[in-house]
Structure to design on (300 residues):
């Protein structure tokens, strides 16, 4: 195994905190990774990790090796990207990280079209709703609804949109269509939970903007699950047009209260490690999404 491959394996073991998890990602056995680290320690003449039954911990030498290994791997990646940038056609493996809601309702439709346009690119998509560090996750690109600070990141706005209040036709047929904030209070409104402060919906009334507090028999911290519950006709949601735009367009959801819903402008951001930003596969994906997203969120 090349030294760079050993470095990459070591970095992944530390990042995920487990031989078993790293082995699953790297498609090798945990014992193979354990032996790799042992060989590395023997060659260097120092211990890099202390192992217990519960956790792995870096020694001071291991922390130094980890820091230098990240630098080397970043330099290798940047060198390969600079060389490959001379090609007219993007190619290679693109590592994406996205929130589950955006992936299930937007990337689900965008990625097949992207891969057809760029047949020499392959995609590895990781889904998580927590904030992640693109460098630590070894991701080429992270898509989130809020930008992240970091001198080692390039932050690019992919699109702007708004939040729509909507429900399935089956729900509106059964429960009626609300026409005001007062009407909403009598409906099953499903909210995004797990936020720092309670989620409210700004609704225009004769007396100004009312911050309506949605109440219902279901809340969830996952946008994708709220979308699915709305599609099933369980209640009313207020979600980004990046997520619900296609469903509204094809009639699975109906936008309601459009004249009084006062949505703030929301943005979708791409976060990329500086060393990977110029890679043709990354640039191709960014440009494709900037073209595709406005079409996906545009309502008829």
């Amino acid at each position: 195994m090349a030294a760079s491959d050993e470095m990459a394996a070591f970095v992944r073991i530390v990042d995920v905190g487990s031989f078993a998890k790293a082995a699953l990602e790297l498609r090798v056995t945990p014992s193979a990774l354990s032996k790799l680290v042992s060989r590395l320690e023997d060659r260097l003449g120092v211990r890099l990790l202390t192992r217990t039954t519960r956790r792995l911990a870096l020694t001071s030498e291991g922390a130094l090796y980890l820091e230098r290994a990240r630098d080397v791997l970043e330099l290798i990646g940047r060198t390969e990207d600079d060389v490959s940038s001379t090609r007219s056609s993007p190619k290679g493996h693109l590592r994406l990280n996205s929130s589950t809601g955006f992936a299930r309702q937007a990337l689900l439709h965008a990625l097949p079209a992207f891969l057809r346009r760029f047949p020499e690119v392959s995609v590895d998509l990781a889904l998580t709703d927590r904030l992640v560090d693109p460098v630590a996750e070894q991701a080429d690109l992270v898509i989130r609804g809020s930008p992240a600070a970091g001198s080692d990141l390039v932050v690019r706005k992919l699109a702007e949109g708004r939040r729509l209040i909507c429900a399935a036709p089956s729900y509106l047929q059964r429960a009626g269509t609300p026409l005001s904030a007062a009407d909403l209070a009598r409906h099953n409104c499903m909210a995004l939970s797990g936020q720092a402060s309670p989620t409210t919906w700004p609704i225009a009334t004769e007396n100004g903007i009312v911050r309506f507090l949605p109440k219902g028999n279901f809340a969830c911290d996952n946008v994708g699950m709220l979308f699915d519950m709305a599609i099933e006709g369980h209640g009313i949601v207020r979600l980004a047009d990046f997520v619900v735009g296609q469903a509204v367009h094809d009639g699975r959801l109906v936008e309601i209260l459009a004249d009084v819903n006062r949505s703030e402008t929301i943005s979708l951001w791409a976060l990329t490690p500086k060393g990977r930003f110029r890679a043709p596969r990354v640039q191709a994906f960014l440009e494709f999404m900037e073209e595709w997203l406005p079409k996906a969120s545009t309502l008829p």
About this structure: The longest strand covers residues 153-161. The chain has a mean pLDDT of 84.
